[in-house]
Design goal:
The structure holds two protein chains of two kinds. By secondary structure, chain A is of the alpha/beta class. In chain A, 34% of the residues lie in helices and 23% in strands. Chain B is globular. Chain B starts with a strand and ends with a helix. Classes of the chains: A alpha/beta, B alpha/beta. Chains A and B meet through helix 2 and helix 5 of A and helix 1, strand 8, strand 9, strand 11 and helix 6 of B.
């Protein structure tokens, strides 16, 4: 029998702030613009039968504000696909809130560094498949990589490979690797970084940062070894849809899911 | 009314909203009164086997569910962890007894080094034994999975569909009035919608039959 391999996923990332859909470049507040109403965009991706969505509320860092559970519910009502939610989650209570309002998975970033036990506690309560640890990485002048936190504003001194291994051990079910130096640039992914993480861990890795054309997704999966590639700008700013990407991926021999292709471009 | 049994974990709205679209009345609850009143059940589930069984035990509803499903033959659909809970026992985080509604046990997926666990994502299932649950679908629809454990059935006839992830495992079950999917129909867009619609049709047909025989 031919071994069936799980499909590689294409995941649009929706950044939220003040209830609006945003897009930024290199995590810079001054390079952040408003795109649309997130509920409308969620509806579009549902109509296109997208594999999955990631919602990150960049206005809800763990220092301020409660989770906008009303918005999570509004978006969840539109979706019949899995979606992850991140932004401001720093306790089991907030994880529970996010999940009961309709998210499939929670994304931990700052809390995964400052309060690591939360990864384990969350995995114990909801299962590790529910816990996505997002690792924001910058490439420094000397070419080395470092994990950053607090929306990219704080260096941690952590090596991304060591940190990825650690969160896997603590119970994370997936890792979202974001190359901040590539984010929003649409100039291609940091394949070296992605490869170093996918080689180091057994759990699925979602790679993001820098996707600007269909070939970047293919490179992230084939060269980077990622299970999924997530992207924002390409879907917000260009004519390219997740299904167009997946057609190209299929041509490249990557297993993808294209449900009812005629109706969902 | 279809009762969505609340085990205290996960999101039940995701399942409920599909039934809303189908125009079917549902209720999310775990009370004895609602279990008795319901004409069918959905047992969804995210989380760990032991914890969910602990919750069902502390609610004191296990025998009530068993009576309604086994004796009164009310249809039930177990989803993901809900499918596993229907079995006799699981080895997730040690030994735990299940609801024992189907002759099956829960074991960890045995996969090689190359593949990742949990098995997360879209995968094709292969329909084996014709089940009303899986009608009006292509032969190998792709559906959404999130799990590390799988259900091992005593009787191959129970297996309505399989999936392959390193090993072949049970993706869907029909055992008399008991149905189950290891994947999430509520997250599987069109195909998942069809499956839940099939379940509703079975309930309605079953109810009609039931009404006739009781006359």
């Amino acid at each position: 029998m031919i071994a069936v391999v799980i499909k590689n996923r294409i995941i649009p990332i929706l950044l939220l702030q003040d209830g609006l859909l945003k897009k930024r470049i290199n995590f810079l507040p001054e390079k952040t613009r408003t795109i649309a109403n997130p509920v409308t965009i969620a509806r579009v991706f549902e109509a296109r039968k997208t594999d999955e969505l990631i919602l990150l509320d960049i206005g809800r860092t763990i220092d301020k504000g409660d989770i906008d559970s009303k918005l999570i519910t509004q978006i969840a009502e539109e979706l019949h696909m899995p979606f992850s939610y991140g932004g401001g989650i720093d306790s089991i209570e907030k994880m529970t809130e996010v999940i009961t309002h309709g998210a499939e998975k929670v994304v931990l970033n700052t809390a995964a560094i400052e309060n690591k036990i939360l990864i384990t506690k969350g995995a114990e309560k909801f299962g590790s498949q529910c816990i996505v640890v997002s690792i924001d990485v910058v490439k420094k002048g000397n070419g080395s990589y470092e994990v950053v936190t607090k929306s990219g504003s704080k260096l941690t001194g952590l090596n991304p490979i060591i940190f990825a291994k650690e969160v896997e051990k603590l119970g994370a079910g997936e890792i979202l690797v974001n190359a901040i130096h590539k984010e929003g640039t649409m100039e291609g992914m940091d394949l070296e970084l992605i490869k170093s993480i996918t080689k180091a861990v057994k759990i699925p890795v979602i790679a993001t940062g820098g996707v600007g054309k269909e070939e970047d997704f293919i490179a992230g999966i084939i060269e980077g070894g990622a299970s999924a590639v997530a992207a924002g700008s390409i879907f917000h700013y260009t004519h390219i849809t997740p299904n167009m990407v997946k057609e190209k991926m299929r041509e490249a021999g990557i297993p993808v899911r294209i449900q009812d292709p005629k109706s969902c471009y | 009314m279809i009762l969505i049994i609340d085990c205290g974990l996960g999101n039940l709205r995701n399942v409920q909203k599909v039934f809303d679209k189908l125009g079917v009345k549902t209720k999310v609850s775990n009370s004895i009164a609602d279990i008795e009143e319901a004409k069918a059940y959905v047992l969804p589930g995210v989380g760990a086997f032991g914890k969910a069984m602990e919750t069902l035990k502390s609610l004191g509803i296990i025998e009530c569910i068993r009576k309604n499903v086994l004796q009164l033959k009310k249809p039930i659909l177990g989803i993901c962890l809900g499918m596993q809970l229907l079995g006799k026992e699981s080895l997730e985080n040690g030994f735990n007894q299940g609801l024992n509604l189907i002759p099956a046990v829960v074991r960890k997926l045995e996969i090689n080094e190359e593949l990742k666990l949990p098995h997360i994502g879209w995968n094709n299932i292969k329909i084996k034994n014709a089940s009303v649950l899986l009608k009006n679908l292509p032969e190998d629809p792709d559906v959404y999975f999130v799990h590390s454990y799988h259900v091992l059935c005593d009787d191959p006839e129970m297996v309505a569909a399989t999936c392959n992830y390193g090993q072949e495992f049970t993706a869907a079950i029909q055992y008399n009035n008991i149905f189950a999917t290891q994947f999430h129909p509520e997250k599987s867009q069109n195909y998942g919608f069809t499956i839940l619609k099939n379940f509703v049709e079975y309930i309605n047909l079953n109810k009609e039959k039931g009404d006739c025989s009781s006359d």
